[in-house]
Design a protein that fits this description.
Layout lengths: L22 E2 L46 H4 L4 H4 L14 H6 L17 H5 L10 E5 L25 H6 L43 H4 L27 H4 L81 H12 L4 E2 L16 E2 L9 E3 L3 E3 L2 H7 L4 E4 L14 E2 L21 E3 L4 E3 L6 E3 L21 H4 L2 E5 L15 E7 L2 H5 L2 H12 L15 E7 L3 E5 L8 E5 L21 H14 L11 H13 L4 E7 L35 H12 L1 E7 L7 H4 L1 H5 L4 E3 L5 H17 L2 E11 L3 E7 L10 E7 L4 E7 L9 E10 L5 E13 L2 H6 L3 H15 L5 H22 L8 E5 L5 H9 L12 H12 L3 H8 L2 E4 L26 E5 L3 E6 L5 H8 L20 H16 L5 E6 L5 H5 L14 H16 L1
Bound molecules: zinc ion.
GO molecular function: SNARE binding; zinc ion binding
Membrane topology: Peripheral membrane protein
Family: Belongs to the SEC23/SEC24 family. SEC24 subfamily.
Length: about 1100
């Protein structure tokens, strides 16, 4: 059994889709086609998938993909008991993250003494990078000199760099922001920048000394005998002062300081260019402009004598500065990939191909492997052995988005109908028929590519093989030639062996004082009247099959009978919230078209009915309970849309108290801020999952509402949380309504179970995302929409084979919007390697960061954030040190050498480390942190990419008639010109920054005022002016919003205005006020860590 290494002939699945007899055309994603349900399902002798795993028939050994879990998971309690672990802070039923945190003791993988640098050539031979290998070397000039300088303590806010073993090994970044205690309940969320100015942090404190860069300078020659951990005061690593010969030896190639070298063909020494396609190297493999060893090399920003944004006094012994232009630039990498890979379609026929970056626009042609829109991997070439994997420390993970929406040019997965017999599966491991299955014995049997079991081909599926051993109908069958497709599921795949009813949506509206006062209820009811015409439906359907119901609540719940035969809606009040029941069945869930008049009447009446309410208290758990019971009574799955304003303090199950305590930040108890304060919501979530009840929560808090607890049910049911702090209709209605419309209309799979099977040798061991697990293999999703991803980590349980590679199959069983039960299958084949260099050539840093962020964000539930940060830093250093040791060309220890495809790992990782979860600034509330933490858990790779490294777009640099998106600049203050305006976005926030010296004409064109001083700071809407600049900027804002899954509210920020503080938080290459390191500083720190590991 082996997987095709080359692209098979182009199958006849070119777009537009032809109609294949026997296949139901997919109606998913708006494609019209036959959606007729088979009238009956025949018996299927497979197990009831997902819900319980029955032993395969006639099988003597367990399939590898469902084998004995590792010790850490084998003991995990199942079923009910598994919920107990949530109280320990673990959302999923995988191995606890403590296990992960323990797996990375410093230097563990590097315990064996390393060969000294001089012997590296010999050592390197087996892994010598082939000519195509890319690697990046950075000469950290500042780290190589001034060994004589006494270590300078880092300035406040920059915790690493102390020459003590503790600091250098842990890389701690103590949070020592300049701000005092944050007034509880008076949070100014980042998204509410127009809020009261009084709560804003003061202006930036005085710039610290530039001494932050002198800590690396303390790196001196290491004593040869020093092998253990360093003692305080001891130096380590680093070549002697006389080392920097590779700086001064390259005068002939000196580039203009500040020139971006990445990707620019320049005058390069021929001896090195073959090594670095696409990435130009200087002599000695260092990149960046060569400079003479002077303190203040010419800089593109003459006013800034040193790098970074903090000019400082000259050092006693002038160290050479690391030029920010000389270190790997995310902008350049993104541009290069767009230029190199954006024009050709990505054809998935070849195993182990690394797809273009998520920031590149490209088309995908499915020729046997799932599109990267569905699955992205941290590496497309995985080590054959677990020893190699441990040595490299590169996490092996896949970020899977099973219901991802596709661009119109790409076809949705075909729906295959095998009729009564259902989909064909391996008898042993239950993997579904896929292109990697090998047909043998003239087509009468097939060997499973996952477990090697030989299976009989049922007579109705038999087909002859051609001379190459391929079935002659291969290209007529999606399941034999495509990476992604769907099967119609038979009744055996349905809960209780019953065809499911169409799902229902229940709108549950808080009508307490706050909700009424802000105008929320009126706005929402008005919107629902028209929005309900846009419920999701199957492609060809005239109307949505989804039924709807309404509940309002404060301390008690009000159910509404909106039966079409009624003249007026009827309200039923349930005040016994401790024992929630649904007071009516008939008339609660209705078809919108049948009951339109009654529903319209109800939506008109609700704001009036409660207009003079004085009730300020709310319940929350009983609301979810009621919605779930209603779905249960109607025997259907569905979604609750809950619109909620306050901490539920009314006497009821799930009652909460205000436990916000910012004093816990940076203590061992900080994790409790992320944990739910009661177990009641986990139990409720479990019931919801069993019912297929997904919960979407819209929060409108004026103060702390304990998002960590309120988001438990949405998180465990595959739902979404939206938060609009200090909601005001006039300022926030566009954002709220835009999110609501998208949320209500988006395609959702209900009552879903996802299973990832793998070929022998690796196994899915851990899962991250918004879902529930009651065993170690099945990801249960009450609902799953096209924005949600599930990240899966793999571990070796045996040796892999280079020839056969490694295979993944993700199977998602779900109920469609019309109530059809389906299986969506995604297959992906990866290469396997025996050389570490192959691993490092086929990694995807954006996906690595997605995994590492999720790993870290789960880690904070159990461990102090400092421990989590240290773990990330250590892992990153180990990844890069392993490359340096095994794959890089010999070079001076003073050089930082990064693998080409991981050259952005340090900058991106630093952004994760500086994020509000791991290093909160003073303006970030506990609720903000809990909110962002759960958002990131379900993000796809494109979303984490821009979230951690925001896009900064200059608006007046390119010609005004140029309507394409302007090229981004690096997220650093020194890239801002005060004569320009910029847009910055990270998927959640959107800023328009206006420089103080911007031309008056520009100000007039955009803001319709005559001078900079007249621009209203905090403005959230640009005036609609009919001039080219205004049209262009507003068009660009619309286009950025359209690219993101949540509406980004605009905030206009003026240079030197106090709101600028919020904006600067997103300039992630700079040092942050909360103590996060600048990119340059972090790179130096990472270099130090790597050298320590290697010495
Ligand atoms: Zn099998």
């Amino acid at each position: 059994m082996s997987v095709n290494q080359s692209a098979p002939p182009v199958p006849p699945f070119e777009q537009p889709q032809p109609i294949y007899p026997g296949y139901h055309q997919s109606s998913y994603g708006g494609q019209p086609g036959s959606t007729a349900l088979p009238t009956h399902y025949g018996a299927y002798n497979g197990p009831v998938p997902g819900y319980q795993q029955t032993p395969p028939q006639g099988v003597s050994r367990a399939p590898p993909s469902s084998g004995v879990p590792p010790a850490s998971t084998a003991s995990a309690p199942c079923g009910q008991a598994a919920y107990g672990q949530f109280s320990q802070g673990d959302v999923q039923n995988g191995p606890s993250s403590t296990v992960h945190l323990q797996r990375l003791p410093g230097s563990q993988q590097f315990g064996s003494p390393l060969a000294p640098v001089v012997s590296q050539p010999a050592l390197l031979q087996p892994y010598g990078p082939p000519p195509t290998s890319g690697q990046v070397t950075a000469q950290l000039a500042g780290m190589q000199i001034s060994g004589a300088v006494a270590p300078v303590p880092p300035p406040s806010g920059l915790g690493y760099g102390l020459p003590t073993p503790l600091a250098s090994a842990s890389g701690s970044f103590p949070n020592s922001g300049p701000y005092g205690p944050y007034p509880q309940g008076q949070a100014l969320p980042r998204s509410q920048a127009q809020g009261p100015p009084g709560v804003l942090p003061p202006q930036r404190s005085a710039p610290p000394l530039a001494s932050n860069f002198t800590s690396p300078a303390s790196v001196g020659p290491r004593m040869p005998s020093m092998t253990g951990p360093l003692l305080p005061g001891q130096d380590f690593g680093g070549p002697p002062v006389s080392q920097p010969n590779h700086v001064s030896s390259t005068p002939s190639q000196a580039l203009t300081p500040g020139t971006q070298i990445t990707g620019h063909p320049g005058p390069l020494p021929p001896m090195h260019s073959p090594q670095q396609p696409g990435y130009q190297l200087q002599q000695n493999g260092s990149f960046g402009p060569a400079r003479s060893p002077q303190a203040n090399y010419g800089s593109p920003y003459p006013a800034t004598p040193t790098f970074g944004s903090q000019p400082g006094p000259p050092q006693p012994l002038p160290p050479k500065r690391l030029d920010p232009d000389a270190i790997p630039s995310p902008i350049q990498v993104i541009e290069d990939d767009r230029n190199n890979r954006g024009s050709e379609p990505f054809v998935t026929g070849i195993r182990g191909q690394v797809p273009p970056l998520v920031t590149t626009n490209f088309l995908v042609k499915d020729q046997g492997n799932a599109s990267p829109r569905y699955i992205r991997c941290t590496s497309y070439n995985i080590p054959c052995t677990s020893d190699m994997a441990k040595q490299a420390q590169v996490p092996l993970a896949a970020v899977i988005k099973p219901l991802a929406s596709l661009p119109p040019e790409e076809a949705s997965p075909y729906v295959v109908d095998h009729g009564e017999s259902g989909p064909l599966r391996c008898n042993r491991c239950k993997a579904y028929m896929c292109p990697f299955m090998q047909f043998i014995e003239g087509g009468r049997r097939f060997q499973c590519c996952f477990c090697s079991c030989i299976n009989d081909v049922p007579p109705q599926y038999f087909q002859h093989l051609d001379h190459t051993g391929k079935r002659v109908d291969t290209y007529d069958r999606p399941e034999l030639s495509m990476g992604s497709y769907e099967f119609l599921a038979t009744v055996d795949y349905c809960k209780n062996n019953k065809i499911p009813s169409p799902p229902a949506f229940i709108f549950m509206i808080d009508v307490s004082y706050n909700a009424i006062r802000t105008g929320l209820v009126k706005l929402l009811c008005e919107e629902l009247k028209s929005l309900l015409d846009y419920l999701p439906r199957e492609g060809g359907a005239e109307e949505s099959a989804i039924r709807i119901g309404f509940v309002t609540y404060n301390k008690v719940l009000h159910f509404y009978n909106v039966k079409s035969s009624l003249a007026q809606p009827q309200m039923m009040v349930v005040s016994d919230v401790a024992d929630m029941f649904v007071p009516l069945l008939d008339g609660f869930l209705v078809n919108i078209n049948e009951s339109r008049a009654v529903i319209t009447s109800l939506l008109d009446q609700i704001p009036e009915m409660f207009s003079d309410t004085r009730e300020t208290e709310t319940v929350f758990a009983p609301v979810i309970q009621a919605g779930m019971e209603a779905l249960k009574a109607a025997e259907c799955s569905g979604k609750l849309f809950i619109f909620h304003t306050s901490l539920p303090i009314a006497e009821a199950p799930g009652k909460l108290k205000n436990r916000d305590d910012r004093k816990l930040i940076n203590t061992d108890k900080e994790k409790t801020l992320f944990q739910p304060q009661t177990g009641a919501y986990q139990s409720l979530a479990k019931e919801c999952v069993a019912q297929g009840c997904c919960v979407d929560l819209f929060l409108f808090p004026n103060q702390y509402v304990d998002v960590a607890t309120l988001s438990v049910v949405p998180q465990l049911t595959g739902g979404s949380v939206y938060k609009y702090a200090c909601f005001q209709v006039e300022n926030d209605q566009e954002r709220f309504l835009s999110d609501l419309r998208r949320d209500v209309q988006k395609v959702v799979g209900f009552d879903a179970v996802m299973r990832v099977r793998t070929s022998t040798g690796i196994r899915a061991v851990d899962f991250f995302g918004a879902f529930y697990m009651s065993n170690t293999t099945d990801v249960e999703l009450a609902g799953l929409d096209g924005d949600k991803t599930v990240t899966v980590e793999f571990k070796h349980d045996d040796r892999l084979n280079e020839e056969s590679g490694a295979l993944l199959q993700c199977a998602l069983l779900y109920t469609s919007c019309a109530g059809q039960r389906r299986l969506r299958i995604h297959n992906l084949a990866l290469n396997c390697c025996t050389q570490l260099a192959d691993l490092y050539r086929n990694c995807e840093t954006d996906t690595l960061i997605n995994y590492m962020a999720k790993f870290a964000y789960r880690g904070v539930l159990n461990s102090p954030v400092k421990t989590v940060r240290d773990t990330l830093i250590t892992q990153c250093a180990q990844i890069l040190a392993c490359y340096r040791k095994n794959c890089a060309s010999p070079s001076s220890a003073g050089q930082l050498i990064l693998p080409e495809c991981m050259k952005l790992l340090p900058v991106y990782l630093n952004c994760v480390l500086k994020s509000d979860i791991l290093q909160p600034g003073a303006e970030v509330t506990t609720d903000d942190r809990a909110y962002v933490r759960q958002l990131v858990t379900s993000m796809d790779v494109a979303e984490t990419n821009v979230f951690f490294y925001p896009r900064l777009l200059p608006l007046t640099k390119s010609p005004i008639e140029n309507t394409t998106e302007p090229p981004a600049v690096r997220a650093s203050e020194e890239r801002l010109s005060n004569g320009d305006i910029y847009l910055l976005e990270n998927g959640l926030n959107l800023f328009l920054w206006v420089g103080a010296s911007v031309q008056q004409g520009v100000v007039q064109s955009l803001f319709n005022v005559s001078s900079f001083s007249q621009i209203t700071s905090g403005l959230s809407v640009l005036p609609i002016l009919d001039n080219p600049l205004s049209n262009k900027v507003r068009g660009l804002i619309d286009s950025l919003r359209a690219q993101r899954s949540r509406y980004m509210k605009l905030i206009v920020v003026k240079q030197e205005d106090k709101l600028e503080m919020l904006f600067k938080h997103f300039l992630v290459e700079d040092k942050s006020l909360s103590g996060g390191a600048s990119y340059v500083d972090f790179l130096c720190h990472m270099h130090k860590e790597i050298r320590q590991l290697l010495s």
